[in-house]
């Protein structure tokens, strides 16, 4: 460990301070900020590494999943052993980030994000960065951000395409204004694939807007919805201010935050394109993994355990049990079938 | 007819004369898409009525969920 004071001598941030729009003053501001990143997949690992290196004071990064080999092509903080050992992304990311910059307070949380978790995590947060892979969570982030007046940065990508938009409550239209309806299905990284430069391009847009916001340089913000296709050599940005709706239920004059009230929306959900169903117990619980291993080992099938989860394979099916109570059932897109298996094992 | 689509000169098939047909051609009809023509965002309800002229500057931004 290097002592904290030593960093000033190391000039860790000297190049960033030489960049006039940030400067020493901006660097000091960064050190006082708290950023919440939802998702530690491709976008999440890119954004969080940039912001940790940049010296943001505190970063919380949340993810519900664990590392798999198919992640390594683009999820830049993970190594092969993370995939072999099925380490939760939030844990693997936190470990790696602390080695990159021990001066930043990095908090990795293994959890599924619903209204409850967001309400707990958002107080004191200066900025939220969207690095999720689904619209349900984004619309939750959108409502919580409006409710607590926190800016957030939308980013998404698939194949060689990506887009980003910075949402400032009270100023810009919100995601609900932009979408009108929630997009269903469509292409995902799991069905049509993705190349890592598309990820890095979105990350570049998101991190840059984040830095502007964190050093209070709001007039430098892009102000437009930006999109690109790296393979087709397309790049465009459009002004969407006019899309803001005064009667929007999320950001309008009489908001009801509709996505915060759908209490049961994520009790069970199909993980898009992954042939996997996630089951969330109705009540929060702390699962005793050792006891679970004991139970499972009498049932036939193969049981593997690490400090964060238990993986159980029987025939074609694989189930992964997390400490926070969630279960992923791999090998099916059928919620009913997944629940049958879940109840067969857990009663 | 030639238009500028997302910053690139693009030759559209003869059959395409309005925005709905354009979106179908690019398989975007079921997606959430923001359409801008010559600097103006065109509401979804008006896509069918909005004809496309040669030389139009058209921007199509569709939302995706991946990340
Ligand atoms: Zn809105």
Topology diagram in text:
The complex is a heterodimer of chains A (347) and B (67).
Chain A: H1 6-10, H2 14-18, H3 23-30, E1 34-38, H4 42-54, E2 58-63, H5 80-84, H6 89-100, E3 105-110, H7 115-121, E4 127-130, H8 135-147, E5 152-158, E6 161-167, H9 175-179, H10 189-192, H11 196-214, E7 225-229, E8 234-238, E9 268-271, E10 276-279, H12 289-296, E11 302-305, E12 309-314, E13 317-322, E14 327-330, H13 335-346
Helix pairs in contact in A: 4-11
Chain B: E1 2-5, E2 8-11, H1 19-25, E3 33-37, E4 40-41, E5 57-62
Parallel strand pairs in B: 1-5
Antiparallel strand pairs in B: 1-2, 3-4, 3-5
Return Rg of chain B in Å.
11 Å
CATH topology of chain B: Ubiquitin-like (UB roll)
Indicate how many domains the architecture of chain B comprises. Answer: 1
CATH superfamily of the largest domain in chain A: NAD(P)-binding Rossmann-like Domain
Q: Share of helix among residues of chain A? A: 25-40%
Largest sheet of chain A: 8 strands, mixed
Shape summary of chain A: globular
Output the radius of gyration of chain A.
21 Å
Q: What percentage of amino acids of chain B are in beta strands?
A: 25-35%
The residue fraction in helices of chain B comes out at 10-25%
* SS content category of chain A: alpha/beta
Protein name (chain B): Sulfur carrier protein ThiS
InterPro entries (chain B): Beta-grasp_dom_sf, Mopterin_synth/thiamin_S_b, Thi_S, ThiS/MoaD-like
Pfam family, one (chain B): ThiS
């Amino acid at each position: 460990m290097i002592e904290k004071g030593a960093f000033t001598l190391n000039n860790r941030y000297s190049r960033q301070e030489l960049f006039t729009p940030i400067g020493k003053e901006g660097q000091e501001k960064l050190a006082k900020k708290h950023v919440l990143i939802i998702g530690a997949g491709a976008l999440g690992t890119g954004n969080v590494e940039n912001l940790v290196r940049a010296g943001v004071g505190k970063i919380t990064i949340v993810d519900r999943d664990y590392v798999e080999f198919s992640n390594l092509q683009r999820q830049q903080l993970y190594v092969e052993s993370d995939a072999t050992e099925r380490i939760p992304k939030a844990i693997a990311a936190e470990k790696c980030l602390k080695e990159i910059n021990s001066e930043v307070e990095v908090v990795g949380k293994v959890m599924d994000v619903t209204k409850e978790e967001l309400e707990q995590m958002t107080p004191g947060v200066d900025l939220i960065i969207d690095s999720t892979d689904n619209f349900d969570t984004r619309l939750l982030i959108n409502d919580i951000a409006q409710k607590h007046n926190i800016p957030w940065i939308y980013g998404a990508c698939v194949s060689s395409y990506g887009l980003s938009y910075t949402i400032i409550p009270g100023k810009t239209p919100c995601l609900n204004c932009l979408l009108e309806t929630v997009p269903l299905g469509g292409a995902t990284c799991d069905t049509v694939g993705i190349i890592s430069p598309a990820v890095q391009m979105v990350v570049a847009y998101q991190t840059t807007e984040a830095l502007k916001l964190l050093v209070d340089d709001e007039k430098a913000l892009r102000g437009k919805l930006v999109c690109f296709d790296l393979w087709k050599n397309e790049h465009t940005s459009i002004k969407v201010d006019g899309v803001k709706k005064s009667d929007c239920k999320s950001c309008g004059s009489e908001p009801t935050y509709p996505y915060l009230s759908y209490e049961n929306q994520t009790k069970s959900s199909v993980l898009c394109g992954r042939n996997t169903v996630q089951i969330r117990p109705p009540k929060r619980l702390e699962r005793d993994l050792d006891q679970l291993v004991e139970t499972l080992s009498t049932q036939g099938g193969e049981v593997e355990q690490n400090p964060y989860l238990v993986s159980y394979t029987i025939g074609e099916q694989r189930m992964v049990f997390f400490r926070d109570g969630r279960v992923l059932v791999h090998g099916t897109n059928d919620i009913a079938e997944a629940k049958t298996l879940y109840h067969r094992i857990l009663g | 007819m030639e238009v500028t689509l997302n910053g690139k000169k693009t030759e559209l098939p003869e059959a395409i004369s309005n925005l709905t047909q354009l979106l179908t051609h690019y398989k975007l009809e079921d997606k959430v898409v923001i359409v801008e023509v010559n600097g103006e965002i065109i509401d979804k309800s008006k896509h069918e009525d909005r004809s496309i002229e040669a030389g139009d500057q058209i921007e199509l931004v569709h939302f995706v969920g991946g990340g």
